[in-house]
Amino acid sequence: MKKILSIALVALLAVSSAFAGFSGTAKINLGANFETGAWGFANSTELGKLAFTWQSGEGASANEGAIYAGIKGSFSIKSENGKAASWNNAPVALSLKGSISEAYVTDGNWSVSILGAAGAPDYANSAAIDGSNNKVSYKSSAAAAPGFKVTANGYTAALGAAGNWKAETIDWSAYVATPEYALAEGVKANFAVAASDNTEIAASAKVAYAADLTASLAADFGYSTVAKAFDFDIAANASYDKYSLDAYYWYSKKNLGAKAVAKLDLATITVTAKDILGKKDLTASASKTIDAVALTVSGGYNIVDKAWKAGASAKYTADLYTANASVDLSENAKKLVVKASAESSKIVAGATLKAAYESSNLLQKGYGKIDTSCTIAF
């Protein structure tokens, strides 16, 4: 009887955990499209993606001794269905995932990882190439072969090899990385090299300076002995007081970008130059927050396409609601887009109220649409 009760209790807890990740929304809209002529109410409901973990855990073991071994792993059992408007007969997938994150032999000063060797290093990366917060980077194709990695006194060395002598095939890799060397007061540098059987040779270096001014210069290089071709990238970063600079160059893509930011008392000024060797796309913006209002003005010019754009936006955050408005003029003053919205989840407890307007192009009689909505979610 106790066993039956225990099974029932476990089943109840499992069902409870299943509903813990359950979500859904119901929404009513009232709007009008000034371009198509459509207007009226719209009703919609949506059940969110159902995903829950039946069980998960971690396991670890670290032995004692002058030289000892350690291992660490984790697992999870999960169920989920695809996000769909209707769950009727929707398939539910059961997944079992597990991994070993650490497996090593050490004496506390050095360690040997037996989870594999190491591939090509990657020291240089930057957000300047596209002017956003997305990091981009070149990395050599020198890949890691099955093997081991040794770490001691800040140095890392890795060796991997596997093959078949009858088929005369081999997969190998080698890797060495140094700790940071102090070259001078405030100046540090570290280096890494790698090679693999795909005839790719890679090298990386980074030099950094830290004082009132902080700056770094990093580069990754790769050479194919078969194609007899090379590639590399360089990233430079510097900051001083309220000013910062991020520059990046990727050789094979012939792409050079730079981004400068000045956080002044008057406003935060951002200037970005994308694809300097190509289309020469230049943008600039100034943003300032005054009490509850955040203001931004921006502009840009593409030298090759000879196209300019300009815009402005404002965001007002009140206790009960948030309001946004923006104006964007582009395509050499041939396109004008206006957006405005107000949203609140505090006026009505448990519901989100929103009113929004967006034009497609006022200069071409694209008066856009207006929409109001009430969304209730759990």
Give the topology.
Blueprint: H1 2-20, E1 24-33, E2 39-47, E3 51-62, E4 68-81, E5 92-106, E6 110-113, E7 147-152, E8 155-164, E9 169-177, E10 181-184, E11 187-196, E12 200-210, E13 213-224, E14 229-240, E15 243-250, E16 255-263, E17 268-274, E18 281-290, E19 293-302, E20 307-317, E21 322-330, E22 335-344, E23 351-358, E24 369-377
Antiparallel strand pairs: 1-2, 1-24, 3-4, 4-5, 5-6, 6-7, 7-8, 8-9, 9-11, 10-11, 11-12, 12-13, 13-14, 14-15, 15-16, 16-17, 17-18, 18-19, 19-20, 20-21, 21-22, 22-23, 23-24
Overview of the structural elements:
The chain has a 24-stranded antiparallel sheet that branches. Among the domains are: 110-255, no CATH class; 279-378. It is mainly beta and 378 residues long. The chain has one helix at 2-20, and strands spanning 24-33, 39-47, 51-62, 68-81, 92-106, 110-113, 147-152, 155-164, 169-177, 181-184, 187-196, 200-210, 213-224, 229-240, 243-250, 255-263, 268-274, 281-290, 293-302, 307-317, 322-330, 335-344, 351-358, 369-377.
Short description:
This protein is mainly beta and 378 residues long. The protein has one helix and 24 strands. A hairpin with a 4-residue loop joins strand 19 (293-302) and strand 20.
